[in-house]
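To whoever is on call:

I kicked off a structure prediction for a single chain this morning and the downstream step that reads the tokens threw a length-mismatch warning. I double-checked the sequence; it's 456 residues and nothing unusual in it as far as I can see. Pasting both halves so you can look.
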Amino acid sequence: MKRSELAASPKEIRLFLELNEKERRAFREKSLENLILYAKEKSPYYTELFNDVQWHGDLSLSVLPISYPDEFSFDHWNTLGLKKADLKGKLPGKTAVYAMDIDKKSYPIAATPAGMATQRAILEERILMGLRENKTAIVYPKGKSSFLGKLFHYGKRISKLRANKYFIDAALPVCEILTKLEAAKPQVIFIYPTLAGLLAKAKLRGEIKISPKKIVLYGEYSGNYLKNLLTEAFSCAVQRAYITSEGGILAAECENGHMHICEDWAIVEAVDRDNDFIGYGKKSEKALLTNLWNYASPFIRCDLGDKIVLRESKCACKNSAKQIEVLGKADDYIDFMISSDTIIRILPVSLYELLSPIAEIDLFQIIVHKNEIEFRMQAAPGADKQVLFHMVEEPLMGYLYACELRDIHLTLSDEAPVFEEDGRFRYVMQPNREEEITYYIDGEMVTVRRDKHEKD
């Protein structure tokens, strides 16, 4: 099967959103079948993984095994016959390397059946190119190892996308990011939620005077509290987007506040510990992505490491695509074992929603150690950290007590909250979380090692 066989001529193109549900399902089934057959033939990794699989166009995907990004060896995985040793340029040490086909003659319709244009292509046009008439500040991970890093790096080289755009490195100190935004006075801001929250608080204190017309949030959890805070501070439109390195823009928020999946572009599954569909409206243990467009480095039932909720769409915006709520990364969860058969799981989302309304705490971070929880905070100018810590103790310890955790020791740290290298922020951190899991037994934390893909 050749990629050129899947391309459509301009006269044949129809917009995915114009299709009825039966036509959409047929479209996705054909896209999925093309991808799986191509990957099984061209990728040594999938040839081996799917060796015993007989594919008959079943959209459920349940017959396929799970793939994990840390198992992908570039040479063994890609379908182009490329070798990592032959790639030019400096490659990131710990980040997975994958290929994307961005041939302008076929992108993005070459990965879809003939006769279709993608909803996702229109979405990207609306979010990026459609903003060309506005002065736009894009706070993004400058390193080219991430999807957004690549997207905006190449975008800076395109004159029609570069015009009136201000690209700001998300890894800069927060004060410097705020200074650059104040100087740019953008009409549209594309930014991580944590940085957006700090921006809003600075605006409410009169420290900055910018008045954007729209703020687009991506890359981290963003709840209703943050949207309300941004609306109060800037009186502007706030839109959330779900973007991953493995799939690009997977979903975007409509005017009714619902995140709709780009179903022509990707299939997202909400599954339990055994990788079975968990049902609509329920919190998943895993999120699995099948990227329908990337034939160069296929992602098929790839574990994203996210916890999500899927809902069938009954939205006034008329978009029938499924809705998604992203709860956070799996490795942000803390498990406390209070008995031999009882585990209490604490969600960062819950702690974020609990403590964020404390106005004079600009930023907080919870670090879990073997025998204590360390609380780091960045207080508002002039605020007393000890007073704020006492304001934290009652609701936080009350929440833990309600979760049947009785002997947790909470301490105020002298350390400031720390951002990730790419500018993202984690409200809850646990050292060596990827290799270890912590249980709480008889008043003492016990940390044990676990296998890479051991079930939670």
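Update from on-call: the warning came from a stale cache, not from the record. Cleared it. Sanity check on the structure: The domain at 333-449 is CATH 3.30.300 (GMP Synthetase; Chain A, domain 3).
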